[in-house]
Design a protein that fits this description.
This protein is of the alpha+beta class. It contains five helices and five strands, in the order ββαβββαααα. It has a five-stranded mixed β-sheet, with helices on one face. Keywords: 2Fe-2S, Iron, Iron-sulfur, Metal-binding, Oxidoreductase.
Length: about 180
C-alpha cells in the first residue's frame, strides 16, 4: 500500500528592503526579518573583518559603527539599519591611507592573534566619536565591552590614547570636550 503525503505549502518569508550607506557606498538589499547585521555583513556581503565571537553581545568582536556610534552587530537586526550609515573595519581607511586608530594599533602592537582587533578598532573609533574618554581610566571603562583573550589590553589602551587626538580632529571635534 502506498502512502502519499499531501502537499504542504511552505510559508513564504517576506524579505524586507533595506537601504543604507555601507563604508561610504549606498547599498540596497533585501533581508529576512531575523537576519542580524553581523550575518548580513559576513554571509551576504562578504565583509569578514567583523568577527563572530560569542554571538550574545558579550565580547565586542562584532563591533561596528552605526551612524558613528558603537553597536554589537550580533545583537542588531539588519532591518533596524534602514537609512543608516554603517562603517566596518574595512571602511575606516581612506584608500591606502590607514585610519589614525589603525595606524596606532600597528605602532603599539595592539593585537596578538588579531581576532578581536577589528571590533577593538571600531569601538575605539566610536569612543573617539563620543568624545567622552579623557583619561586612561575612562578609556578602560568605555572599552570594557571589548574582550581580548590574548590580554593585549595595555597596548590597546596605549594605541587609543595616542590616536584619540587625531581621531577627534578627523571627526571635526578638535579635541575639546
Amino acid at each position: 500500500m502506498s502512502v502519499t503525503t499531501p502537499d504542504v505549502a511552505q510559508p513564504a518569508f517576506v524579505r524586507h528592503p533595506l537601504k543604507l550607506t555601507l563604508n561610504g557606498q549606498e547599498r540596497q538589499l533585501d533581508v529576512l526579518p531575523w537576519t542580524t547585521l553581523l550575518d548580513l555583513l559576513r554571509e551576504q556581503l562578504d565583509l569578514i573583518g567583523t568577527k563572530k565571537g560569542c554571538d550574545h553581545g558579550q565580547c565586542g568582536a562584532c563591533t561596528v559603527l552605526l551612524n558613528g556610534k558603537r553597536v554589537n552587530a550580533c545583537l542588531t537586526l539588519a532591518v533596524m539599519c534602514d537609512g543608516a550609515e554603517l562603517t566596518t573595519v574595512e571602511g575606516l581607511a581612506d584608500g591606502d591611507q590607514l585610519h589614525p586608530m589603525q595606524q596606532a594599533f600597528i605602532k603599539h602592537d595592539a593585537f596578538q592573534c588579531g581576532y578581536c582587533t577589528p571590533g577593538q578598532i571600531c569601538s575605539a573609533v566610536g569612543l573617539a566619536n563620543e568624545g567622552r574618554a579623557q583619561t586612561t581610566e575612562q578609556i578602560k571603562e568605555l572599552m570594557s565591552g571589548n574582550l581580548c583573550r590574548c590580554g593585549a589590553y595595555s597596548n590597546i589602551r596605549d594605541a587609543i590614547e595616542e590616536a584619540l587626538p587625531a581621531c577627534r580632529q578627523r571627526a571635526g571635534q578638535g579635541g575639546e570636550q
